[in-house]
Amino acid sequence: MSEETKKPTEAGDQQTLKPADPDRAARDAARAERLAARAAAKAAAGGAGGAAAGADGAGAAETPPKEPSPNQPKLDRLVAILKEQIGEDAVVEAWINEMDRHTPTVVADKNRWHDIALLLRDHPELKLHYLRNLSGVDYETHLEAVYHLVNLQETLTYCFKVRTDREQAEIPSVADVWSGANWNEREAYDLLGIRFTGHPNLVRIMLPDDWVGHPLRKDYVPVDPEV
């Protein structure tokens, strides 16, 4: 007879038995241990969650307070200067734009914008001498001019937004404050129809003078669809 042995069954039959596989037995034991460990971890997590829910009554663990932005003191000082020097109504909103490298951002009052611009350039603490960019945005409810100004000594950028009505879109020009605003204001006028009052030569800069409408407005409908 070979290594296989015969064992009688209860019915009197014979069945073949093979020697146990030690590797398979070890794998089965390891798998059982893993399942038991997972069940224990799940039970422990459930117990901890229940304890936290009982502690705060909200079913959620307490989260640590959010760290303030490193530029928050800069924003606070900027807002204080504007309100002290221009007036309480100079600042409409102010926040830190964390998605844009924690840029201090201010919505400035449109009627005070030119005075604000002069202060931003000439104030000994602010020293915003360089206009890096000026762009326009159509939010459908209103239009907005966005100015990115840089303190070159601190290499810190500030963002200022000035809002205006879509139907009577007018914002004071700051081309006399930052010469780089000249062509940028003409572009925003050309494509969005924002009139920068006091600009020395507010004419189209990209499109022909006889072009109808302003192509970057969201309600713009071209006269000739094929153009």
Q: What features would you describe in this structure?
A:
The chain contains 4 helices and 9 strands. With 227 residues, it is α/β, with parallel strands linked by helices. The chain has a domain at 72-197: Beta Polymerase, domain 2. It has a 5-stranded mixed sheet, covered by helices on one side. It has a two-stranded antiparallel sheet with strand order 1-2. Strand 3 (91-97) and strand 4 (103-108) form a beta hairpin. The radius of gyration is 35 Å and the shape is elongated.
Topology overview:
Layout: E1 5-8, E2 14-17, H1 22-56, H2 72-85, E3 91-97, E4 103-108, H3 113-122, E5 130-138, E6 143-151, E7 156-164, E8 170-172, H4 181-192, E9 195-197
Parallel strand pairs: 4-7, 8-9
Antiparallel strand pairs: 1-2, 3-4, 5-6, 6-7
Structural category is alpha/beta
CATH homologous superfamily annotation of one domain: NADH:ubiquinone oxidoreductase Nqo5 subunit
The amount of beta strand, in percent, is 15-25%
Radius of gyration: 35 Å
Query: What is the approximate shape?
Result: elongated
Number of strands: 9
* Uncertain regions spanning at least 5 consecutive residues: 1-17
Distance between the termini: 95 Å
Helix content: 25-40%
SSE string: EEHHEEHEEEEHE
Largest sheet: 5 strands, mixed
Key words describing this protein structure:
alpha/beta; 227 residues; 31% helix; elongated; five-stranded mixed sheet; single chain; two-stranded antiparallel ribbon; 9 strands; Beta Polymerase, domain 2
Compact overview of the structure:
The chain is of the alpha/beta class and 227 residues long.
